[in-house]
Design goal:
- The chain is flat, with a radius of gyration of 21 Å.
- α1 runs antiparallel to α4, α4 packs across α5 and α5 runs antiparallel to α7.
- The protein has one domain.
- About 70% of the residues lie in helices and about 0% in strands.
- The mean pLDDT is about 95.
- It is mainly α.
- It has 8 helices and no strands.
- It is found in: Membrane.
- One of its GO terms (cellular component) is membrane.
- Keywords: Membrane, Transmembrane, Transmembrane helix.
Length: about 180
């Protein structure tokens, strides 16, 4: 076998295995780097006790609606039911969507939901919390520095999630097990 044939057979093997390996690697990377981040963030939004999932904390409102909280002198009781609904839905999303991605259930929809979440989170950070006024936090692409909290990190997050939206969860997932169950029925 010459070098060209060896190269071609290697590329063909990668083409066959890539779509099965990549989604599992993406989910493992998400679990290793972002699951804890989103769950820790969600925990700061829970109110006290078992009903805390329905009674968001002060932190939840200040994180999600910084300008509105400032406008009402940080008295969340002055905000309406729509603010409550957004905070509760956002908190639940931070728990549920990452969990679904890690186990590989409804992975494509969950990844798309997380992309939307990251976009909203980024806009809130840039506009609501004023990160756009801080170049060291905002960062810039093509600046030889890959550690900006907004421009660089969030781009990596979205690319990772886009891979899951495009490829799904892969063979080692609840999605794959459910598909196999449906086919055998």
């Amino acid at each position: 076998m010459n070098a060209v044939q060896l190269y071609d057979s290697t590329v063909q093997a990668l083409n066959r295995s890539g779509p099965q390996i990549l989604p599992v690697l993406l989910r493992a990377l998400f679990a290793a780097t972002l699951l804890g981040y989103f769950w820790a963030s969600a925990l700061t939004k829970l109110g006290p006790g078992l009903l805390g999932i329905f009674k968001p904390s002060f932190n939840a409102y200040t994180q999600i609606f910084p300008r509105q909280m400032e406008a009402v002198s940080y008295d969340a009781s002055q905000l309406g039911w729509l603010h409550w609904a957004v905070v509760v839905a956002g908190t639940w999303a931070e728990f549920i969507l990452p969990f679904l991605i890690v186990i590989g259930l409804a992975t494509r929809v969950s990844a798309l939901g997380m992309i939307g979440f990251v976009i909203v989170q980024t806009l809130t950070d840039l506009i609501g919390h004023g990160a756009a006024r801080h170049p060291e936090t905002l960062g810039a692409w093509f600046d030889k520095t890959p550690d900006a909290l907004i421009a660089d990190q969030r781009a990596f997050w979205v690319v990772l999630l886009t891979g899951l939206a495009l490829f799904g969860a892969g063979r080692l997932s609840v999605d794959a097990a459910l598909r196999a169950q449906v086919r055998s029925a």
